[in-house]
Amino acid sequence: MKNALFGLILALQFLTRIPLPIACPWTPATRRWAIRAYPLVGLLIGSVLALSALLLSFIASPAPITALLLLSLWVALSGGLHLDGVMDLADALGSNQPLERRWEIMKDAQIGSFGILALLFLLAWKGVLLWALVAYQAPLWWLVAVPALGRLAGVALLIFTPCAHSKGLAWSWQQSLSPRDVGYALLPLVLVVAVSPALLVWGLVIIVWVAIARRALLRLFNGINGDMVGATIEGGELWLLVLMWSWWQFATVSPPGI
User: For residue range 162-182, what is the model confidence (pLDDT) as tens digits?
Assistant: First the structure.
């Protein structure tokens, strides 16, 4: 139980900007529990977003303002941690360089034009999709589920995809993990399924996303690193938002446009 608690604190310290000045042991057991807690931390972030959306609806905040506030809070809570991975990956892919050079670009601390463009488009798409879903008055469970499922995607990619190099944070985490840790990570999502069985469908959607990301990263880089796990989380969230918007736009009776 102590290792599980330390793991949760480690996950909160790593994935959020919530101030937790607690020194936790860095052991295989606490690392395992930290990874298992990723979706739980996602549920916490999503719950804060959903509660904020509910409060904003009480004051009749316009949909564009609500969407921008939610996006700002989303980035603030996570500290933009995974956005760095998106930018590094975009710079490497946009370079059209051989494999070794792509890895060098990934490690470069400077951000190039492709990384900046990827960041701008990612945040723009997230903001517009949030705007649309808020305007459609979609049930708030989707806002709880998206960060949790995105982080589940990161867990699955880390566990089921080999690291390209035997060093780095992702590799050190990977040494403590096994496929059963995905099962532990799924447990908190069972509570959300009890509230909304539709989460099962979105769970299948995120499995498809992980399969696509895994195949592409193995083909392009022969393995993964921590930046790619972060990019997979961000990409998974965007993937879910696009498909959720598509569902309310085309498979339900759409309310008036934005």
Answer: 999 888 889 988 998 999 999
* CA dihedral sign of residues 81, 78, 6, 188: negative
Give, to the nearest 10 degrees, the angle between helix 81-94 and helix 63-78. Answer: 90
In the three-class reduction of DSSP (H, G, I as helix; E, B as strand; rest coil), residue 47 is classed as: helix
Reported as a single tens digit per residue, the pLDDT across 189-223 is 887 777 777 788 888 999 999 999 999 999 999 99
Who contacts 39 (Cβ-Cβ below 8 Å, separation ≥6)?
148, 149, 151, 152, 155, 185, 186, 188, 189
pTM score of the predicted model: 0.93
Contact indicator for 50, 143 with CB cutoff of 8 Å: yes
Q: How many CB atoms lie within 10 A of CB 49?
A: 22
pLDDT at position 72, please? Answer: 96
- Region 233-243: mean pLDDT is 95
Residue 145 main-chain phi, psi, to 5 deg? -75, -35
- 90 contacts 115 by C-beta, under 8 angstroms: yes
- DSSP secondary structure letter of residue 97: -
User: Do 127 and 117 contact (CB within 8 A), yes or no?
Assistant: no
